[in-house]
Amino acid sequence: MKKITFILTFVLLLSSVFSQNIDSLIGLLDSSDDVEELLVEIVTYYENVSPQNTIDYADTLLLFAKESGNANNQAFALSKLGKGSFYLGNYTDAYTYWKLSLEKYTEIGSETGIAEQYNSIGAYFYSIGDYENGLKYYLFSLDIRKKLQDTSGIAYCLNNIGNVYYAKNQRDLSLETYLEALNYAKLTSDKKILSIVLNNVGAEYAFLEDYEKALDYHFQAVELKKELNNEMSLAVTYMSIGSIYKAMEDYVKARNYYDIALVIFKAKNSKYYQAKMLNQIAGLFNAQIIYDSALFYLYSSLDISLEINSLSLLEDNYWGLSTIYDSLNNSSKSLEFLQKYQAVHDTLFNEQSDKRIKDLQIKYETEKKEQENLILTNQIEIETLKSDRRRNLMYFFVIISMLLLVSALLIFNRYNVKQKLSKLLTEKNIKLLESEQNLMTEINTKDKFFSIIAHDLKSPLSSLTLVSEMLDDNLTDFSVEQLKYYINSISLTTSGLFNLVENLLNWARSQAGRVVVNLQSVNVYEIVTKLVELQSVSANKKNIEIINLVNEDTTVKADINLLTLILRNLVANALKFTDEGGKVTISTNSIDNQIFIEVKDTGIGISKEDQEKLFRIDINTKEIGNSAEKGTGLGLILCKEFTEKMNGKIWAESELGKGTKFCVELTS
Predict the structure, then answer these.
(1) What are 400-453's pLDDT values in tens digits?
(2) How far apart are CA 639 and CA 33, in angstroms?
(3) Model pTM greater than 0.85?
């Protein structure tokens, strides 16, 4: 729940309106004598508003700081590069930047900077689920904050440490730490951290079923949030209070607070929290065995959950609907929603690690400072104009004539510029329309691809469920041979499912631009030799001979990891579509400066019509050919994408009944 709140808070902050003063700051970059300080202000502004702008300007600041030798600005830029990367979900990059920033701050002896980086690194480990390392770095930061007598910093550190204990389910330690954080938060004027800690302490007492204390702390948090005018956060607290009253079986008060929270969520157009609140109200009616009302609110929540495609809410609603229909003895409906719940649950299991964003508050100090500077600049300009006016009064008649002439020229020039801009705008609009059409085509293509993948994930999962349920219900009725058959079936299904998920994850990394290509001289023979050894088990099962005809000194310019993945997929496909007793041959040819790596099999072959469907994301490969062994085609899509990333080409040559040959062309 804490991580979900983190994500939603950040999204709300990110949607805030940008200050126009940032444009004036950026405009001064070309003429300023102190570019570094301007860049520091710009990065400071963007760090809580736009992660990508934070990265872009922090990268520029780092170049200037390295050139000038300003170690403090280098450390600052590295820290903000980490922050921007973290918000974009690039956790590894964020960790690297924060480590480099820590080294710089250590060199210059900045304890405040060191404490900040320890806290950031702790947040990295916490977000990836490495709670031990997260705790270690939070404690490092806490030691320095205590040394600096930074009361507010101590409160934040202790709250983060409490979150770690909470995540590890060490509730006695989390409560103890939150209470310590509360003591420090009360010594500061920072109402935000005080309200956060009060909420956490209240949640801990609710877990311990000490509902009176839980309500007391939550109501204190309510008063602070009213002062801070944070309506969304206030509504979340009202929702927690309603849940406490529900646990106390005071359903009237629970419903009152739920309704107040729902009104705020609707006013703020928060679809996620509207759906969550409707689900909670459904649970309230379910607890009172008022199933009709419970179903009404669950279906209302489900509609919104489908609209915003929130998997976590879909999971909750499908489970609730299955449970209620089970209570109503409607087994078919209960089973229908249970199956939907299981499908969403499996999807969530694979996506949870990609949804980590920190909760931050936008800083307005830069805007305030720029407004003050703008006022001062205007005052200076006014005084200068008055002085010039007095000094040049005697030249008025001559100057007015010149101004009229210049004005005419300017008007004419502006007319020409306006005409050019109008033409340019028309051209840009045409290009934008073309880009939009291309984007819609690509989105529709990928939607179809995801539909194919979803089906191919669902089929083996359903098969596994049916076989495991059959074994569980009738284990003693099967012979040893039958058990071996079913266990082998489970093994083959999970192996295929693992390969599909692995390829899907690699493809997702490629689409997100997180695949780093490191081109170097790679020995093809060494890769193929290892690959043949790894695939020997699969080949032996079908009595297929794998022949390695690659020359030992054959090298190509490639990324060793990507080339290994490509060849592994091609060899696996060849083994899959080759009958027992067949052959798979891996060889290389060279023409001029190009190397051709060929994977040839003696399998069933591919028709000319079906060859045109290969390497396409919008084609279901189960429609290709008539082999019993088919896949999703994702492996070949990966092969094409990764080959092109290495400036190469890939194609297939085949004839029905005479086998297939896949060729990968790379530079030597």
Answers:
(1) 767 777 666 777 767 775 677 667 766 776 777 776 665 665 565 455 455 545
(2) 51
(3) no
